[in-house]
Design a protein that fits this description.
The chain is of the alpha/beta class. It is built from 8 helices and 8 strands, in the order βαββαβαβαβααααββ. The strands form 2 sheets. A 6-stranded mixed beta sheet has the order 5-2-6-1-8-7, sandwiched between helices. A two-stranded parallel sheet has the order 3-4. The termini are close together. The relative contact order is 0.21.
């Protein structure tokens, strides 16, 4: 299976047909045409952090509405995809074999980093879905290593989906509002050059590990939880030596964000 990193938008807004999300909605509803049908979906979600990498093992996950201030109907969404406890245990074993400390969580439901994009990509909810958390220390190299360990599941027909955003600054200072589009564009260009450039995998991994040194890196990500699902996807792609292309590169509220597909 290909490996995909996406922006999931702001809260439930993509499901509300928000006008500022039009391009993203179109992307999420059409990108599946570039993908074979997966056997299962493994989502690395920016909205789940634990002290060690944690894998959802709930056979019938509920919904986790981890946003606030939206209309009542946005707390009524349902995404009745099944979990897969056996697959969760296999993922745990594989990560442990590669030295990654892990836990299983048999209670967690689907957070909006998972259910929002999947309701647009796979609305029939017919595929098993496993969520994988970030580790709270947000170590870039560790998350690249998590991806390397997960790579074998791609070869078994499962979609590795990193759900976050290549730009995520929710509190842009008023003094920088006018400069934000240009600053985001410069960070986005650095990210695209790093991911899609013709340098070695090792140099790309090193650059991603030092993302804070990128132009406006800490402005684009005051906290990097929305970027690190990209590191996991990159690590899986590095292990498999896959080719990459940018499949979404648009201004979003004036801010530039990207999605990447490795195959």
């Amino acid at each position: 299976m290909p490996i995909l990193y996406i922006p999931h938008g702001g809260g439930p807004l993509p499901l509300m047909n928000d006008v500022n999300h039009k391009g993203l909605i179109k992307f999420l509803t059409t990108i599946i045409h570039e993908l074979p049908q997966p056997k299962a979906i493994i989502v690395i979600t920016a909205h789940w952090e634990e002290s060690e990498v944690t894998i959802s093992s709930n056979p019938t996950p509920g919904m986790l509405f981890d946003y606030s201030g939206f209309p009542p109907q946005t707390y009524q969404y349902a995404y009745p995809a099944k979990g897969d406890p056996a697959l969760a245990k296999r993922i745990q074993y594989t990560l442990e074999q590669q030295g990654v400390s892990t836990s299983l969580d048999d209670q967690r439901g689907f957070d909006h980093g998972t259910f929002v994009p999947l309701m647009l990509m796979y609305p029939d909810a017919a595929l098993p879905v496993i969520q994988v958390s970030l580790q709270k220390d947000l170590d870039p190299q560790l998350h690249i290593n998590v991806g390397k360990a997960l790579a074998e599941f791609s070869t078994q027909g499962m979609l590795i989906l990193g759900s976050g955003s290549s730009f995520h600054n929710m509190r842009i200072p008023e003094a920088l509002t006018a400069q934000a589009p240009t600053m985001s564009q410069e960070f986005n260009q650095w990210l695209n050059n790093t991911i899609t450039g013709e340098t070695s995998w090792e140099k790309k991994a090193d650059a991603l590990s030092r993302w804070q040194e990128a132009p406006h890196g800490k402005f684009a990500h005051p906290r990097e939880e929305h970027l690190l699902p990209l590191h996991v996807c990159f690590g899986a792609a590095q292990a498999l030596k896959l080719s990459v292309k940018n499949v979404f590169n648009q201004p979003f509220y004036g801010i530039h964000v990207s999605a990447f597909l490795w195959r």
